[in-house]
Design a protein that fits this description.
Bound molecules: nicotinamide-adenine-dinucleotide
CATH class of the largest domain: Alpha Beta
CATH superfamily of the largest domain: Dihydrodipicolinate Reductase, domain 2
Number of strands: 16
Structural class: alpha/beta
Number of helices: 15
Helix content: 25-40%
Number of domains: 2
CATH topology of the largest domain: Dihydrodipicolinate Reductase, domain 2
Oligomer: single chain
Amino acid sequence: MNDTSQTSTINRRNFLKTGALASGGILLAPSIMKAQSVSPNEKINIALLGYGRQGEVLLNSMLDITDRPFHVKAVCDIWKYSIGKCRSVLRKDSPDLKWYFDYEEMLAAETDLDAVIISTPDFWHARHTNACLEAGLHVYCEKMMARTVEEARSMVNTAKKTGKLLQIGHQRRSNPRYLHAYYNLVKRAKLLGRYTTANGQWNRSAKEFTDVNPKIYVDQAMLEKNGYVNMEQFLNWRWFKDLGGGPIADLGSHQIDIFNWFFDAYPKSVLASGGRDYYKDREWYDNVMVLYEYDTPEGPARAFYQTLATTGAGGGYFEYFMGDEGALRISENPSFTKMYRESGAPEWDDWAKKGFIRKEEAAAQKVVTKVDVRESAPPDVYDIPIVLDKKPHTPHLENFFSAIHGKAKLNSDGEHSFKSEMAIFKVNEAIDARKTLEFSETDFEV
Ligand SMILES: NC(=O)c1ccc[n+]([C@@H]2O[C@H](COP(=O)([O-])OP(=O)(O)OC[C@H]3O[C@@H](n4cnc5c(N)ncnc54)[C@H](O)[C@@H]3O)[C@@H](O)[C@H]2O)c1
């Protein structure tokens, strides 16, 4: 028998029992019901705003959904090349697809849109999101929410004012493996005991600035109209201070959101160091290291995070929580995900029998052949037997569509994402200040 599928089912059922309250998978707040504008048996009319690398990932993730609850009616991008790619993917599914080079024209012309998926560069998110919310659309906007705190705050306030839904692209919040780890393993089974420490990282190898064949360059007037000096800046916007937040915003925003989630708290202080150690042609820091202090409901905790844009050999990407009874290393990549039982901690056999975790074969654990008797025994190693049989972004998009149909609560709404991303906004400031910065209550207020 394939026990993976069996244990996944058991876990999902348990997750629904234990996790729905806090994740809001089932209970509906009145504000969510108010925001509902599309009846569950109607298709949601969608526009795509920004169809670069992530726009393509999101569309493919949407197209994977069975009984698709949406119809893509329009795409807007300032680059003909991006529009061409989108049209070719949607040739069969949306023969009536309209395309636009200007989002205001699209909003004026497409009067029956219900929702938009925004994956333009970060410095455009607030303008695009606010305009779409004001036009009566529900918005799924990629992280980082915005380039500045004030812009991000304005998005939350516009969503409140218009009563429309705002989901931010922190897709781990809808990932069944993360939901199982948080609700079942950490909160219900308490397999970590008291966890005081987290670390996380995303290291990836150095890459030259991107370029494309000059034949497909965006027209210079179009670039300037949209805030880009030239094609180099347009293609490499992440590295420019006015356009993006650098690797800490690009990659760290996903993982520091997980620290905040699993600690049930936002940090109280941040100390950070970063530099342009490798790339001299970029504005943002290519290496960043951050230390956060938390006051969690269980007591004080600390977290370390690093993102290195110069090495892929440095161990990949994961978030690691360490407690007195066990540790959890979790990642969007299942092969980096493991649990470790502290020797002397209560046995985990019952949880393994229930299918919450699965012990690794002894052979797989045998890493030390000659153990010095004074060394402590290596911890038992466990897998988390939850298989995501979809693309990583699909559950988060499904959650967005279900919320529009009034059947779910958003897993990463604008207000919670704003508070979580505050932790990121302050990192670059702390690097420049070269000292510990405290968060104040008002930082997290919208
Ligand atoms: N959730 C995730 O895992 C994840 C992964 C990658 C990227 N992202 C986010 O997705 C967003 C896009 O990133 P990307 O990697 O696709 O960037 P990209 O540069 O590949 O694509 C951006 C697209 O937006 C278009 N564009 C730029 N300015 C525009 C404007 N004013 N109006 C309309 N279109 C415009 C560009 O022509 C391009 O097609 C960013 O916010 C990024 O942080 C999220």
